[in-house]
Amino acid sequence: IDPDGVRVFRLRARAGTTEFRPGVATPTCGYEGAYLGPTLRARRGETVRVEVVNELLQDTTLHWHGMELPGAADGGPHALIPSGGSSWPTWTVAQPAATLWYHPHPHGATTAQVLRGLAGAFLVDDPDGRGSPGLPDEYGVDDVPLLLQDQRLTADGRIDEETRTAIGPLGDVVLVNGVAGGCLPVTTTRVRLRVVNASPARVYALAAADGRDLVLVGTDGGLLAAPVPVRSVRLSPGERAEVVVALTPGERLGLVSLPPDLGLLPQLAGTYGAAGTLPLLELRAAAELRPSPDLPATTAVVPPADAASAGGERRFELSAGRINGRTPDPGRIDLRVPLGATEVWTVTSAHEQPHSFHPHGVRFRVLSVGGAAPPPELAGWKDTVYVPPRTPLRLLVRFDQPADERTPFMYHCHVLWHEDQGMMGQFVVD
Ligand code: C2O
Ligand code: CU
Ligand code: CU
Fold it and tell me: Where is the Plastocyanin-like domain (predicted)?
């Protein structure tokens, strides 16, 4: 905290090596360290300034995914930080407690930079705490961010950036906070896991290996109205979930990714990484556990999503490498939205591939999925959403942050290879 009360962070993007395989130094990138970045944390109402230093040998940007901030601080593709350069985005946190994240966004190079490890969590707290009383909130003890990245290493130990499916690279091992097959020691009867899908392409279905329910308490943009027991939580690239897991003393519980339901033709599940069960992490409960408080009956006030409040409606059709038939043009503004407006955005995929839709600078609510009410994992605040084929998603989006032509907001597919291939458009809010 500087003398003016501004919370200041420094993130140096740098190259290094990480030993994923014993004795093999894999070239990776990270912020401050060699892989991933530190968890940043700030409260609503605080002003934040981040000194971003680019010590990479290539240009980068740093985007605050899910943060409601002005376009000038958003770190999208227009905010290029040249190799050797730096930037000092500053903004005031203006949203409720949530698990957000940060990652680079240079046009055409996002997949490679994120895959090498450029990603980190950004936790927003409420002025009086970390969300709701009763939720585990001791960072690193019973409140733990988990960044998921699937990787494939080449025979000589490099990250394989060349082997790609139509949705980009799919790894054969899932790293959780940079570790494959890791374990998390647990010392309390409940643990809150803030799971970030920081993978370029893979969709997960987070679940307990023994089939017990997880308790979903939050999604991308904040806490749900009430905790909901769920068998699994689907997370497409860019999406987050907060789950609470209950453990008994001495117990070991695997967290896995089940084959996610992508709504695709069954014969395509393997092609898009939706076939097998993948181990993520083992939770290892101590022989004696400190009792956690009971879960609260309600966790947040989430107003009903009411389409009647919307001033306009727009349609987004996703197809191979395009949104509404267009490829991105940095000089073209695709949409103009009045500041303070609420709109209905209908997003439809016209073909048989997984997509994940994400607009910058906003949070939204899902009104319907293929005409039906959203399931619990889509019923709260969102900023990114899986888009199944030929199933229109209706989103209620409110635009409270300004963005001009110089640093417009993006909307894009968060399957990073699709984003790099041009499934991206830009909009101003004024
Ligand atoms: Cu997480 Cu435009 O990105
Ligand atoms: Cu974003
Ligand atoms: Cu896509």
Answer: 16-127, 313-430
